[in-house]
Fold this protein.
Amino acid sequence: MSTTHLPAADPTRTARLRDALLTAAFTADGLLELLGAPAYAALARSETVPALRATRGDGPLETLVRLFLLQRPVAYGQAAAALPVEDCLADGWLVRDARDEGQVRASVDVRPYGGPDGEDWWIVSDLGCAVGGAGGIAQGTAGPAGVDRSELVLGVGGASTTLAGLTVRTPVSSALDLGTGSGIQALHAVQHAGRVTATDLNPRALHFARLTLALSGAPEADLRQGSLFEPVAGETFDLIVSNPPFVISPGARLTYRDGGMGGDDLCRTLVGQAADRLNDGGYCQLLANWQHVSGEDWRERLASWVPNGCDAWIVQREVQDVAQYAELWLRDAGDHRTTPEEYASRYDAWLEEFEARKTKGVGFGWITLRKTGSDRPSVITEEWPHPVEQPLGETVRAHFERQDFLRTHDDAALLAAHYRLADEVVQEQVGLPGAEDPEHVVLRQNRGMRRATKVDTVGAGFAGVCDGSLSAGRILDAIAQLIGEDPVLLRDRTPESVRMLVGQGFITPVTG
């Protein structure tokens, strides 16, 4: 697996290239302004025709879009007006067009990417490997000549941005990006971690991660080759993030997606080994696929993966039947462009694998572990296919903080505590028009997970009064007096509801 044909990251020349990209507004905002929303969205789906129409001019930004995003040759002089072309030729960002020496081509895909605080970053990946669209990676056309398709490195996709948005961003001493790919998670991590280690089985991926960090002007990461936790044996971290090759497939044709283990064993192994690589209080956050096995509850199955001493929050976002799943990844590999007989044979191999494993569907979602050392771990598995508000890192952190609170507060302590209604929670009353009383009351979050839960009139009244000034018990006593109920009985039956409201983030404990 050679990296000799990839660009070099000479610090001085890379800084000049970065300055040129900024000067030309080759940024996420600049692209949106140039292309317009429809063409910009189409580009994210790997549809290039609208962007080609929008870049028919010869300005620097149009030139850069055609070079690095649309992978079209441009005249040497036109390229020289947009960027330090001799630097780029020397370091390998550009190459002379084989059919016309007066033109140059990009050797890699360079995609503008907006950081969480408005930073202008760029993600570097193989040509033809932008994530998105139903076409998949074209057979024989993606990446440079002589590179096996199994070694190609993909750019940013929905999974990458989802994980970046989920990650807890509190400052830490050390972070590990396991399976770094083009380096997007490492790029985020170096902003808030004192030391970042990034690993990948594919040495080309490590080189691309180095290019992404260098071109984005980010601090360097410690890049190491190897599988899973092998490159960091004996080390521990405050944060581990991973967008692993989680696809459940018959074989390991494509390194970027196929983990090489049977079924969902790679994700199970990663979760099971994470505790030994985490410092106390540290998080491990990853995306995963998991099997829905006949005769087994998927929640119980995934809960059994969680290592001792860790809390876990597992959220299933989507489930596909085995036929849908096979078709998705056959298209991703470009197998739909092969002969009908070859496509049918590969499709059958996927279904044969699922049948052998008694798999009836495949779930996709998020797994977050937090190392607590508690002998009463909180392991929550839930299905939540509804819209959420990204970024969710603070929501994830607050979730585990609330589990710590609930674990250390019995019913008496729960009622002695003070709470505050979470921001952006509203009350909805549902019932027939004109009815004197609603059929039920719903509390709805407009931030974070955007949960909704039914409550009775006591629950609604309790939540509405939570402003931190009174204890839960005092609030319940006042409600009991208003509705003519025995306050002792009300106190006895309410803690479970309070735990639910705290656990799901509708009310938050007031400390200090």
Remarks:
- The radius of gyration is 26 Å.
- The CA atoms of residues 3 and 204 lie 6 Å apart.
- The longest strand covers residues 278-293.
